[in-house]
Amino acid sequence: MSSSAEPIDSSMKPKRPSDSAFKQQRLPAWQPILTAGTVLPTFFVIGIAFIPVGIGLLYFSDEVKEKVIEYTDCHKFANGKEGPEKCADIIENNPNEECECRINFTLEHDFEGKVFMYYGLTNFYQNHRRYVKSRDDKQLLGELKPNEPSHDCNPFAFTEETNDTTKKPIAPCGAIANSLFSDTLVLHSFHRGDTVPMLKKGIAWPSDKEIKFRNPPGDNLTEVFKDFAKPLRWKRPVYELDPSDPDNNGFENEDLIVWMRTAALPNFRKLYRIVNHTADGYANGLPKGDYCLNVTYTYQVNSFRGTKCMILSTTSLLGGKNPFLGIAYIVVGTICLLLGIVFLFIHIKCGKSTTEMINVNPRTPYQ
Amino acid sequence: MPTVGSGELEKSPQEENQQCSTYLFPSTQASVAASSGELSGATKVPAVPASTVASIPASIMKGHTRSASHGGVGTSVSSSNVVGRPSALKQNRGHQRAFSQGQIEDGAGATSFQRGHSRVGSKTDFILPPGHRDSENNVGAPPSATKVHGHSRQASRSESIYTLRQSGTPSLWHQFQTYVLRRKGKTEVEEPRYRTVVPNHLVPPRTPQKAHPNGKRPDNRIRTTKYTLLSFLPKNLLEQFHRVANLYFIFIVLLNWFPAINAFGKEIAMIPVLFVLGVTAIKDLFEDRRRHASDKRINNSTCRVYSGEAERYQRVLWKDVRVGDVVHLSNNELVPADVLLLRSSDPHGLCYLDTCNLDGETSLKQRCVARGFVEKQEVFHPSRFRSVVEVDTPTTKIYRFHGALVHPAGRRVPVGTENLLLRECVLKNTDFVEGIVVYAGHETKAMLNNGGPRYKRSSLERQMNLDVIWCVLILIVLCIIGAVGCKLWLSSYDATAIFIPEYHDPDYEGMLSFWTFVIILQVMIPLSLYVTLEMAKLIQVYHIHNDVDLYDPLTNKRIECRALNIPEELGQVQYIFSDKTGTLTENKMIFRRCSINGIDYNHPPPENAESLRLKPGAPMPLLVNPRMQEELGQLGSELRGHVHAQKIQEFLLLLAVCNTVVVARHPHHDMMNASGVIESVSCALDNQSNQTMPPIVTSSALSEPVLPSQSISIAGQGKPDKYSRLTESRSVTPSPPPPLAATTRGQLVPPSLSPIASSTESTPTGDSPPPPPRTIRPKLLHVPSLLLVTGSKKSPQNPQNMSHKSVTPSPGELRPIFEAESPDELALVDASYSYNCKLLKRSPRSATVSLPGEGLVEMEILRVLPFDSSRKCMSVIIVHPITKEKTVYCKGADSTILPQLKPTDDFLMQQLIFRTQQHLNAYARQGLRVLVMAKRTLSDAEYEEWERAHSEAELSVENRDRKIRDSYAKLETNLTLLGATGIEDRLQEGVPETIAALISAGIVVWVLTGDKPETAINVAYSCKLFSPQMELLKLSARSKDAAESTILFYLTEIQRDCSPPDHGATGGLAGPGLNQVGVFARATTLGESSHSSHQVMKKRALVVDGKTLTYILDRRSNLQKPFLELTRHCTSVLCCRATPLQKAYIVKVVKEVLKMRTLAIGDGANDVSMIQTADVGIGISGQEGMQAVMASDFALSRFKYLERLLLVHGHWCYDRLARMVLYFFYKNATFVFLIFWYQLYCGFTGAVMIDQMYLMLYNLLFTSLPPIAIGVYDQDVPEEILLARPHLYRQGRLGLVYQPHSFWITMADSLYQSIVIFFISEAAYHDTDVGIWEFGTTITTSCMFVMLMQVAIETRSWTVLHVLSILASISAFYVFSLVYNTVCLQCFGLPSNYWVIQQTIGSVIYWAVVILSTVLALLPRFVWRALETCLFPRDVTRAVLEKRRAARLDILRNEFSSIIPRSKEDHLV
């Protein structure tokens, strides 16, 4: 690296490299060697740590109560009785028709603690590459610019131009918003003879609700969104998503926010409501008994062979019910313990023989 | 002392040869006969002479065709030589430049006409292997005058001699690049063949450049930098896009711009590529800056240019020198531009050039002033020079230059190469010269030949590239699976599926998604690996460069790492090819022993030699042998010892006279100082300066460089001139001898036919006699001190003799400066000087010697019979001034001289000869070069008769060379023995130990030397390359058939030895034949297995000579494979008399045929081609100029540092980089697999769950430091163990860390780990409300932890840096993601990830998943590592464990011994 053609006079200064530990690669070092003896403790420690953790996780998972009601193929409920047609078929023939289902079910146990109501979709690829991208975060931040929804939103950025309407930008644009889950799920308690009180708010992440999704400035949302069209599939414009609560409209509608957080896997659930535990009779959760799920069936899943379901679930440390982690921890812990024992055996058996082998090594003379 | 083999000494070499062939190879007789037929055939064809150079009419040979530099003794044009080159002659392939290094061309008859020196064939001329065509050589064409002038070499450096020529047109890309990148000036097509150079002082001052006649010519400023400020960016980018990997990534970035395909944010996708390009650009920038600095230094050196205005020379910066300037140069000054010589201080208009910087030749080249100016020397003044010069357009051909001086009168005088001083050469042995610049700056031949560095790729990198190709294949497979999956998935849906924004035809979509997959899985091709690898190597090289153990305090030199990209290759060397002289040995000859009158005088090296190492070239101080001193002191006395003393004196006289040494007293001096002012006599005109010179200078055209000791004293006497320091020069390279008597050509190297050689030579019986026991060399092999140790020192051998008379010159006395062709002669003259037999002055016709008894004696030298390699001796005929007695003093190889001794019946004389022979044998066994001295007294009649016969021989037309040689031989008979000398070529410090360590590291060491076999074998023994237990196989065949049968004979012998008895029969039956070759070739692939079997077998060493190599290396002979197979059975190989190109070919053959990684180490220009050919080239920055260093990848100051460089740094670098590379594959593959698994869940749409920022920064930020920590700072074994156990080098030598299957194991591991990471996450988040980004974040974190823990498992030695790198990576991830997820609401058009990480890390499931994945993913590797150490540990692990156990045992023992009383401990032990 040093230039060799240096003039003679400058070569007089010594070029001796400095003797620092770093430059000489002599930093103090610890050289662990993974022998049977040294890895033994690791295995035992992992084994001993994992099994209890696994048991704990399993316990927590078991604590969670969950009720799944699939209603994809529910039959139309009209005039007090269940009709022969499936809601799905009705919707398929006429997307605008409303169809109602009622499904009775029984909770065998009390659901203690907070009870969450989810809707679950299967085979719904919310993680489709183009689908995931098909949104305009800027728009959702409340920066409405009439002519420029993001290109990502295509083909759900503008309404089609027809004879009587002009091309209008869509708000919220994109495929995600367009495919907003639109069924209405209402729970009836036969026991109390009343609808179970549900909270519509608090289901979205606070950060989303407060920062990521903002309504455009302006007091009157109707006014603000007047130049924008509603997404094609929507029945109501964005400012009328929740007629019951004016604060839950526009981009700040929590159902929309929850939907907009695209799911990772094609079978997913999304939080729909939280049982209002301040209401009478639900303070300790959802008591066992007979319930009826009233569904306003508008969302079509047949086209992609999906299913829909309603899930009632309590929560635990781990969230929902999922025994996998607990089992996995126990299994891995056990494997580690077994390996530990194997290595103990090897250590006792071969530890000595390694030494012998080393001593008779023919190459040792080069010392 | 044993006397083995002394009998053989008397045989002439021919006899020996004959005998061997009859005895051993009956079949070769025919070939001998055949070859003698060839010989006559060759002589019948005058058009194809043995050497065109020799046949050129001597009258026009005024150039310098010197060959023969130090050390070599040619085989010359003896009959054997002619036979030796039949292929070249018969095939007419155009290689008549067939003389190897140091060969002396036999052109003696012509010498009397020659103006200069007729030593033909430069050192770098050599036997070109057939098939290697020298296009410049017209075989049959009569040599035109211009061609013969100057050097016989015509090829330019770039395409020449030092490099194995690569034929074939450059690639299209290269041509394109050349077209684009080159400066415009080179592409201009139309330029007149001749350009005119007008002296600038004729042009009126301040002429605008356009009007200036030389205005179009570039100035002397040079720029070797690749870039300028403006061109840096475009040019650097263009160059970087040259790399396929970069192109690939650019392609991906572009792909990302297609909306249908795009997977990533357009800007984000560019981050990695920009980063890589940026880092590389910065690296290039720094390198370029270094070049810029050196350019600046060169451009700002000064020289003296005649100024027409000031009417005198003025100091001018090099960059301001322009074409047409008249420059003035002093001795030892660098030539600033290509200068046409107009005037020299020498009355004959000669000057000498050292072209070492240009072509690496250490010999001096003679140049003369343009024709017509020789006579005007005295009156020349620049202002009177009004002629115009016409010159060629510049070419790269160093030795081709045509032009003409056009005088004002219109007369044209042609000028040629012999008038041209080339830039970067050094003026030597001339006081000053003046000349006109004809080419400047980039048009000088030096610059035109300035080729860039070659790019070497290490085998690790080659292997890596192969695996990268596998990666590409894996990537393509994944992409195809993805595309097919996409199509299948999509075709199961129709346009109504609500989550498909735009429904395309599934086939179309599948095709598009293929490209999408290419984008999202691009990490599979580890772009970051290239950058990291380069950075790691850079830091590695930095540490090697800074290794204090590789620093040589004596020369104040560190190791110099010139190649930055092959440090790991150092750890994988399988073959080492070493030069001998200057590399293993110091190339300093030391007079060690002499035998006079049957008495052996030892000259042990001074004891303090170690501490007083000298600058190269300094005279060897000699410890005078007190006994000899005393005996010499009896001279003149009437004592009994008088006769003996006379003999000693005569012996010394012979040493002083019988040589080609040149004596100088004064350094060259130029009257003009650095600023162009004449300094001496007030108004001394230039043309008078010659007279003011010391007479010694004007009296001869000799070279008189100055020894450092003297130059210091002169410089110290008060000339603060900058040129005074330039007077220091190479003492061993004189300019050619005087042009007077025909005779002083040649060099002399004492040939020593050692008994070792003669006893085992050519005895391929397989059970050759055991080599004679070797006496142990003196321990102190190092260079003696500067101080002359006076004889008062007690010699261990004759302690009874005390000399009190100090006869060595006092330190104050000025010692004359001796210059000799070979250091041997120097050593001899120096030795005689030490005994007060001082050679004081020497001219071609006389020598002045100061003898102890007689004072100054001037002896007339009648003739010098130069050395040639067939006679192996040289002689001088001198006339004693008083007695007028004519004496032939002859010195030469024992094999030559001893048979020529006068037959005698005198018992005493016989006794003397016998004793001397015994001494010679002893000397040879000590590895000394031996010479025998003899004399013959001639009567006047005898002399005249011989003289007459000789003149006839010189005038004869046919066979003149032979006749002259015979005539010489006629004179060198009936000799009387005077004595013998033993000269030591010292081994460098630590050489035997280093070689022993390298051999035990399993590296095959070959020594390739231009030296002759005897010397080389001696050195091989003393440097432990050969051990006395080894069986010595010699290959010195004189024909192809002989070579073939010898090789096959040896092979069958070995086969018989190797194979167990039951197989022996078949081996024996198979007989030598070509079908055998196939068997051997297969055997070679067995590799290490056959290697290990050697250890049980008899050890063999192979000695090959250059001529045999010619046959072997000839591809048509099909001898390469058998030869290489033979070498595989030999622990070490020694190639003697190898030419530079042969050296390179050997390296190439081993590299390409055996597929071995080679390292070549050498110090001289003759090693350059070898160094460049080898995978690793190492230059010893020793005494022989910088050529080897310039060509090398690493430059060491001593051979011994090689051990540490290879065993420690090489081992480390290989181990580190190998693990780092594998880690990178693992890291990227895991990541890619993770993304791929996700496609199963997203319908193969190419969605990526990991945020793109993570994706891009993953390699750059989150996982980049730990691999660098491993790649640079990890040490699998501490250096002490590596040095103590060289066999650990095996790991790198056999490439055990990174084997072909390692990649697949890594891939399997990463596949497993990715499955664990992904599916644990998937299962944990199954049926939950997890969002895509939370999922991705969890997976990224798991993946990162797994990667970092993997590093932890792979780390062998933990230092702060390792810990820090891991901690830094983890914190980088968290800090970045926290900041990014907080700040970035809407960045780069990416889907917003606001608050994701905060949300995620708050959940238990995240941590549970991360911990579980980490443990489960790493479990197999961890278990594997532990099992590996327990059950089948690697060498390195074993060594460390053992060391640790030993240390523990020591502690235990110490504690034990402290407890138990001493007596008991003894009992225990």
From TrEMBL, chain A:
GO cellular component: endoplasmic reticulum; Golgi apparatus; plasma membrane
Main subcellular localisation: membrane
Keyword Hydrolase tagged: no
Keywords: Membrane, Transmembrane, Transmembrane helix
Membrane-spanning parts: 33-60, 324-348
Record localization: Membrane
Keyword Membrane included in the entry's annotation: yes
InterPro entries documented for this protein: CDC50/LEM3_fam
UniProt membrane topology term: Multi-pass membrane protein
Stated family: Belongs to the CDC50/LEM3 family.
Protein name: P4-ATPase flippase complex beta subunit TMEM30A
Organism: Gryllus longicercus
UniProtKB/TrEMBL annotation, chain B:
Catalytic EC class: translocase
Location(s), subcellular: Endomembrane system; Endoplasmic reticulum membrane; Membrane
E.C. designation(s): 7.6.2.1
Entry annotation: catalytic residues: 579
Positions of transmembrane segments: 466-490, 510-533, 1221-1241, 1253-1273, 1294-1320, 1332-1353, 1360-1380, 1400-1419
NCBIfam families the UniProt entry points to: ATPase-Plipid, ATPase_P-type
Protein name in UniProt: Phospholipid-transporting ATPase
Lineage: Eukaryota, Metazoa, Ecdysozoa, Arthropoda, Hexapoda
